[in-house]
Write a structure and sequence with these properties.
Length: 149
């Protein structure tokens, strides 16, 4: 009769349980989001400050805020990485504004859309890292200043 020692059985069970728990932990970690703007932002906004916020679209909570500057030469003209934030089945948006101060406004403040360009962009988790690249489109603006107050 072939008997497996109790120690070996428990070791195998413990190892299996450890691997199972490690897999569950990895599955519950979020995926990275890279949010960027293409070269179409150069002309109208090169050198201007911007802020981007990842928002839980289901409840309006702000998850993270990033600050940067629109490049007048680089492509992408801006890029923000939000590490480990996207959970499968989540509902997300990126709110962002550029401190343009066209025809008025206050430097450093998110002013009305006629002064500071601002947008809201839906982000859909894919189960893996997401890179979203925006094109400059003033006709698609949405008021988002409340996110940054």
């Amino acid at each position: 009769m072939n008997r497996t020692p109790l120690f070996t059985t428990r070791l195998g069970l413990g190892l299996s349980l450890t691997l199972l728990l490690a897999g569950a932990a990895l599955a519950s970690e979020g995926q990275d989001l890279t949010f960027q703007g293409d070269a179409s932002f150069h002309g109208p906004h090169g050198g201007q400050a911007l802020q981007a916020a990842l928002v839980d679209a289901a409840n309006g909570d702000t998850i993270a805020v990033k600050t940067g500057e629109v490049s007048a030469e680089a492509d992408p003209s801006f890029s923000f990485t939000f590490p480990g934030v996207l959970m499968e089945g989540g509902d997300y948006a990126v709110h962002y504004w550029i401190d343009s101060n066209f025809g008025g406004g206050t430097a450093g403040n998110c002013d009305d859309m006629q002064h500071d360009h601002q947008w809201s962009v839906a982000i859909e988790p894919t189960g893996g890292p997401v890179t979203h690249t925006e094109q400059h489109d003033p006709s698609a603006q949405t008021a988002v200043c409340d996110t940054f107050r």
